[in-house]
């Protein structure tokens, strides 16, 4: 099994990123060969400030290493250190029907939010397909919103293999943790940096608490019985807590006499328990730029060797050799 995922370096990572993508990807490193990259080519579709991109790339590298990515088990690299994927994107474009891209939600969503309708934004899923196929990935852990892109990748791979009459590419599957398919933000919508409703992974304890106190709930009073299944605080608490602790909080909700403020406090404590040690680890790594660069450079070397091989096969199959 070869597991691959990528994440854009385009903002401070939040609990949605962590539970939807980072943690599943990091947990999977125990189960197979894992490739994980920082999608800086993709990030160019939405911002243009060179220094911000550089800093964002460093931040994501630190975030993943602090959260337990083990460079001995995971090939960790920057997307742009493997320029072969851009050539592969062109080759894949040939078998990518316009209609397939026109149906993709992300282009529609982003242009509706005011992003310029560029060709790069439109063909974004083809670059993503190249990322996945270059490494012959079998499993792609992503959040729900990226599932469509993995479906597009499968379509493109099948078409390309048919065109060439040989299996140039492995057909990948997406993997989604169903219990955390969509992590809600503090307003109850999908948590996303674009909606200003996030709880950041490495927020200072006080800032995290402030965010948590703003989580939207209904207006039931302290004494009222409450429904855990419709509550945003409980939905977030569940992500951290053991089954036992979840059941305990659910019971308190149903019994009444337990306020949303109490639940928010429990959420904050559970958050600190997980993220305080990681925050310390991150601070230590931040002082060791040479180590972080070394990890990414070594990852790029391995990734590039594999992508070069796949690209070579595709070129030969098309008569470009
Ligand atoms: P954002 O919505 O903040 O811009 P991205 O689109 O960069 O986040 O997502 C990066 C990864 O994190 C993707 O795999 C995505 O599916 C996952 N992800 C982002 N937000 C959530 C969420 N609220 N719930 C679950 N997964 C999420
Ligand atoms: N599009 C993904 C996102 O915005 C990032 C990404 C790029 C990716 N290439 C990928 C994810 C390949 C998985 C596999 O989150």
What's the topology here?
Layout (H helix, E strand, L loop, with lengths): L1 E6 L7 H14 L4 E6 L1 H4 L6 H17 L7 E5 L5 H10 L4 H5 L2 H8 L6 H16 L4 E3 L5 H18 L8 E3 L29 H9 L18 H9 L2 H13 L4 H27 L2 H30 L3
Parallel strand pairs: 1-2, 2-3, 4-5
Bound molecules: adenosine-5'-diphosphate and tryptophan (TRP).
Short recap of the structure:
This protein has 13 helices and 5 strands.
What does this structure look like?
The chain has 321 residues and is mainly α. The chain has two domains: 2-182 and 289-318, HUPs (Rossmann fold), CATH 3.40.50; 202-283, Tyrosyl-Transfer RNA Synthetase. It is 56% helix and 7% strand. It is built from 13 helices and five strands. Strands 1-2-3 form a three-stranded parallel sheet. Strand 4 (139-141), helix 8 (147-164) and strand 5 (173-175) form a beta-alpha-beta unit. Helix 9 (205-213) runs antiparallel to helix 12 (260-286) and helix 10 packs across helix 12 (260-286). The chain is globular. The two termini are 30 Å apart. 40% of the residues are buried. Adenosine-5'-diphosphate is lined by residues 7-8, 16-17, 20-21, 142-143, 145-146, 182-183, 190-194. The site of adenosine-5'-diphosphate has 17 residues, from helix 1.
Descriptive key words:
Tyrosyl-Transfer RNA Synthetase, binds tryptophan, 321 residues, three-stranded parallel β-sheet, 2 domains, binds adenosine-5'-diphosphate, mainly alpha, 13 helices
Q: Secondary-structure element sequence?
A: EHEHHEHHHHEHEHHHHH
Spatial extent as radius of gyration: 21 Å
From the 3D structure, determine the CATH topology of the largest domain: Rossmann fold
Count the beta strands. 5
- Name of the top-level CATH class of the largest domain: Alpha Beta
Let me know the CATH homologous superfamily of the largest domain.
HUPs
Estimated structural class = mainly alpha
Q: Uncertain regions: pLDDT < 50 for 5+ in a row?
A: none
Q: Roughly how many Å apart are the termini?
A: 30 Å
Bound molecules: adenosine-5'-diphosphate, tryptophan
- Tally of separate domains: 2
- Spatial sequence of strands, sheet with the most strands: 1-2-3
Percent helix, as a range, is 55-70%
Strand content: 5-15%
What is the approximate shape?
globular
**Tally of DSSP helical segments:** 13
Mean pLDDT: 94
CATH architecture of the largest domain: 3-Layer(aba) Sandwich
Q: Can you summarize the main beta sheet?
A: 3 strands, parallel
């Amino acid at each position: 099994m070869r597991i691959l995922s990528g994440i854009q370096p385009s903002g401070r990572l939040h609990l949605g990123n962590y539970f939807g993508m980072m943690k599943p990807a990091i947990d999977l490193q125990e189960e197979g060969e894992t490739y994980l990259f920082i999608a800086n080519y993709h990030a160019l579709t939405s911002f243009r400030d060179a220094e911000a991109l550089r800093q964002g790339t460093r931040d994501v590298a630190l975030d993943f290493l602090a959260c337990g990515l083990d460079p001995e088990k995971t090939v960790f690299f920057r997307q742009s250190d493997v320029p072969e994927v851009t050539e592969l994107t062109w080759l894949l474009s040939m078998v990518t029907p316009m209609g397939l891209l026109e149906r993709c939600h992300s282009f529609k969503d982003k242009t509706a939010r005011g992003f310029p309708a560029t060709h790069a934004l439109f063909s974004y899923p083809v670059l993503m397909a190249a990322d996945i196929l270059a490494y012959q990935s079998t499993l792609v852990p992503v959040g729900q919103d990226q599932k469509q892109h993995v479906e597009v990748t499968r379509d493109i791979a099948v078409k390309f293999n048919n065109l060439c009459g040989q299996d140039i590419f492995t057909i990948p599957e997406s993997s989604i943790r169903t219990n955390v398919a969509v992590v809600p933000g503090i307003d109850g919508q999908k948590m996303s940096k674009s909606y200003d409703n996030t709880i950041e992974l490495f927020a200072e304890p006080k800032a995290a608490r402030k965010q948590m106190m703003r989580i939207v709930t209904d207006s039931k009073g302290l004494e009222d019985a409450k429904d855990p299944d419709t509550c945003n605080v409980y939905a977030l608490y569940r992500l951290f807590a053991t089954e036992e602790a979840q059941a305990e909080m659910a019971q308190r909700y149903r019994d009444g006499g337990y306020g949303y403020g109490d639940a928010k406090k429990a959420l904050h404590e559970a958050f600190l328990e997980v993220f305080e040690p990681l925050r310390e680890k991150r601070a230590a790594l931040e002082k060791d730029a040479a180590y972080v660069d070394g990890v990414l450079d070594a990852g790029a070397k391995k990734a590039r060797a594999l992508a070069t091989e796949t690209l070579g096969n595709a070129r030969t199959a098309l008569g470009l050799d």
